[in-house]
Amino acid sequence: MNSALPTTRRQRIWREMKDYLLIALGMIMYGIGWNVFLLPNDLPSGAVPGIASIVYWATGLPVQYTYLGINGCLLVLSLIILGWKFSVKTIFAVFVLSSILPVIQSITNGVSLIHDQPFMACVLGASFCGSGIGIAFSANGSTGGTDIIAAIVNKYRDISLGRVILLCDLVIISSSYLVLHNWEKVVYGYVVLFISSFVLDQVVNSARQSVQFFIISNKYEEIGHRINKDLHRGVTFIDGVGCYTQNNVKMMFVLAKKRESSTIFRLIKDIDPKAFVSQSAVIGVFGEGFDRIKVK
């Protein structure tokens, strides 16, 4: 029993490290989309970065300062409602993004990418930003700002993250007209918002896809034990009878994340290469280890 503890601890540490690495990657992508494509082309965005952009255009104050100040207040709310684990990762994300922004600004100083093609800048910037937020959310973190509000709403109601952010950010983008005095730029901001929300949902939903397995094997106990131990997934044994042979069989029913499929197949092959395995995708799985049931 004690020999399994170090492995479990190592797995837990690796999962946490992977989360932080993914959050850092997401923030780098967001920083590129915001600073390389949106900000130089005067394209407004939503959330706290949108507010920071408006302040920058109006006063010239670097965006990282406004971004840090507003997020400091929202993180207090996150600690109270979402808990320390989400908040710590969000603080890490805010720190990474605030730190990487000056680096990106110095590297791209004087460089103007697709400056005369605002729509392409809009599409590329929104794609980078939406992917960055989606990766951060998949790793149980966020960029702060309206992401925190979206996470709070999503915790209690079955409303997609992208939709909540969309509603919150419409007001922020509309407010950019007070500084830019250009409705064309505001319309581009709406396009940025819709594209980033769509990309966000695609990234998050792809990370949450689940699969179900039906496994028939004479070594069902060993396979079930390994799935319990290595993947921490539940296994249900179902009694069955073969129609042709009339032999009693044990069938295993397993629900897992799609990304865990290859691990399950490797595990089964190592134990019983002749096992009969059926895999299928499921629309949604709710319960411990998966999504929470959220109803109005």
From TrEMBL:
Q: What is this protein called?
A: YitT family protein
Q: Where does it mainly reside?
A: membrane
The domain of life is Bacteria
Write out the annotated subcellular location: Cell membrane
Organismal lineage:
Bacteria, Pseudomonadati, Bacteroidota, Bacteroidia, Bacteroidales
| Gene3D superfamilies found in the cross-reference section | 3.30.70.120
For this UniProt record, the keywords arranged alphabetically read as follows: Cell membrane, Membrane, Transmembrane, Transmembrane helix
TM spans (from-to): none
Look up and give the membrane topology term: Multi-pass membrane protein
One protein family per Pfam: YitT_membrane
Question: Its GO CC terms?
Answer: plasma membrane
Q: Which organism is it from?
A: Phocaeicola coprophilus
